[in-house]
């Protein structure tokens, strides 16, 4: 195993997310907005009602004082699997229908943006990989134009046979990992070593309007599962990019995805090989990851211009 490389001063990033269901997507977006080393170029949404998800991303950015471009992506899965919809998405955010987002389709913008800056833009994919698969289909050079794809997905240990993001669109996941895209993946066996509980929730709640909104969504998610904690899967993926020194990565290899059947989306990792361009996150410093995550989100919520309203989207 090898430690991740040191991060440069600033990384240009696109976030592809199914924000609105599991609260960890909102946590990931808030964390990105609070980390000085990341330049968030825009957000694309995926899976289900992507318009609602786009408006929710805009709302969170507004609470952090950011006029963030957001674009809606694919709602239906390439596999044909039915979208799982919890039913609480956006319900704690009054007036959400008034939030606007960009008209340009997500995949079109994503391929255009990375093509204009080949090798300079990282993509963080923390939902089903439908948009990423469609981007590869729309522009075969997408695989080389992206600097690195950072993925939260899969289960590579003994925790479960499948994980939600890969299971939700196994066809898309299989296409992405067969593309040769440079990728770093963090799976359930690693993210579940980190938890958010009451102490972290209290700190987040005190972080201005952003923290109040996020804490309410976290509390709603806890009630949904009748738990008093949650696993911040997606913020962990953000930190693999932003703070690689807190993680241990495997050497290069290949991820294989079961495309169908009872265990559609099941993921396996084959180390080595001439085509291997994927690294797995194997370990992390859990306490430091929690502190960096909470600190970054608090920073986003307590910046001097937090809580201001953005101008209408163009």
Automatic annotation (TrEMBL):
Record key words, sorted: Glycosidase, Hydrolase
Residue ranges of every copy of the Inosine/uridine-preferring nucleoside hydrolase domain listed in the record: 13-270
Gene3D superfamilies: Ribonucleoside hydrolase-like
Any one Gene Ontology molecular-function term assigned to this protein's record: purine nucleosidase activity
GO biological process terms held by the UniProt record: purine nucleoside catabolic process
Transmembrane intervals: none
The keyword Hydrolase appears for this protein: yes
GO CC, one annotated term: cytosol
This protein's name: Purine nucleosidase
Species this chain originates from: Nocardiopsis flavescens
């Amino acid at each position: 195993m090898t430690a991740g490389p040191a991060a440069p001063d600033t990384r240009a990033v696109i976030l592809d997310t199914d924000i609105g269901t599991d609260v960890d997507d909102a946590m990931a977006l808030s964390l990105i907005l609070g980390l000085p080393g990341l330049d968030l170029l825009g957000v694309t949404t995926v899976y289900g009602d992507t318009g609602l998800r786009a408006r929710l991303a805009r709302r969170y950015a507004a609470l952090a004082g950011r006029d963030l471009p957001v674009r809606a992506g694919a709602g239906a899965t390439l596999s044909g699997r039915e979208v799982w919809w919890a039913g609480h998405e956006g319900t704690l955010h009054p007036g959400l229908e008034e939030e606007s987002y960009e008209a340009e389709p997500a995949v079109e913008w994503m391929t255009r943006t990375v093509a204009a800056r080949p090798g300079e833009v990282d993509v963080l994919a923390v939902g089903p990989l439908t948009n990423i698969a469609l981007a590869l289909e729309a522009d075969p050079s997408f695989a080389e134009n992206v600097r690195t794809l950072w993925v939260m997905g899969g289960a590579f240990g003994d925790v479960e046979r499948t994980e939600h993001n890969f299971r939700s669109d196994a066809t898309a996941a299989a296409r992405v990992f067969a593309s040769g895209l440079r990728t770093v993946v963090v799976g359930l066996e690693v993210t579940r070593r980190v938890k958010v509980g009451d102490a972290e929730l209290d700190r987040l709640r005190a972080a201005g309007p952003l923290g109040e909104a996020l804490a309410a969504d976290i509390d709603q998610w806890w009630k949904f599962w009748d738990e008093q904690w949650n696993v911040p899967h997606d913020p962990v993926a953000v930190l693999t990019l932003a703070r690689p020194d807190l993680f241990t990565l495997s050497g290069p290899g290949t991820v294989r995805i079961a495309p169908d059947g009872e265990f559609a989306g099941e993921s396996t990792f084959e180390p080595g090989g001439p085509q291997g361009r994927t690294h797995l996150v194997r370990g992390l410093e859990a306490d430091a990851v929690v502190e960096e995550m909470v600190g970054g989100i608090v920073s986003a919520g307590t910046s001097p211009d937090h809580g201001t309203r953005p101008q209408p989207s163009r």
